[in-house]
From TrEMBL:
SUPFAM superfamilies: Dimeric alpha+beta barrel, Winged helix' DNA-binding domain. GO terms for biological process: regulation of DNA-templated transcription; response to amino acid. PANTHER family: DNA-BINDING TRANSCRIPTIONAL ACTIVATOR DECR, LEUCINE-RESPONSIVE REGULATORY PROTEIN. Residues 5-66 form the HTH asnC-type domain. GO terms for cellular component: cytosol. It comes from the Bacteria. One of its GO terms (molecular function) is sequence-specific DNA binding. Keywords: DNA-binding, Plasmid, Transcription, Transcription regulation. It comes from Pseudorhodobacter turbinis. This is Lrp/AsnC family transcriptional regulator.
Length: 153
């Protein structure tokens, strides 16, 4: 069930998504409120699960992780024990930034960030040694056109 949020909450969320390091005073000034009501609203949205965590965003290329692969996985295994093993393998791999179970011909898609093709192959070999996978297709992203964590609120 979606949490009830009003226009003021939306303004606060927009400010936090833009820069969560801003002070409460800065946010309050920008949205035309005061510090205590802003703090109370943020606290409530955390309790309601609207705000799940605060973090920093890093530049992958600046850290030497220059290759982004989208990995399409098809499996002939759909039993609960296989899925548990597969999900555990993904959770244990820091290279996997995102993993989605899909409807259609492809069962899963992964977003994998690594230094280069050799590092991807190391990731791939480790993954297939842990779980049986019917088919894997890796697509190298040539250019990131848009990437954001900001949700339209």
């Amino acid at each position: 069930m979606a949490s009830r949020i009003d226009e003021t909450d939306r303004k606060i969320l927009a400010e936090l998504q833009n820069d969560a390091a801003q002070s409460l005073d800065e946010i309050a000034r920008k949205i035309g409120s005061s510090k205590t009501p802003v703090w109370n609203r943020i606290k409530r949205m955390k309790e309601d699960g609207v705000i799940t965590r605060q973090t920093v965003l890093l530049d992958a290329e600046a850290l030497g992780l220059e290759a982004c692969f989208f990995v399409l996985i098809r499996t002939s295994e759909h039993e609960a024990d296989w899925q548990e093993k597969f999900l555990h393998a993904l959770q244990a791999r820091p290279e996997v930034l995102e993993a989605h179970r899909l409807a259609g011909d492809i069962d899963y898609i992964l977003k994998v960030r690594v230094a280069n093709a050799r590092a991807y192959d190391t990731f791939y070999q480790a993954l297939i040694s842990e779980v049986r996978i019917f088919n894997v297709t890796a697509l190298l992203s040539m250019e990131e056109i848009k990437s954001t964590t900001i949700l339209a609120v």
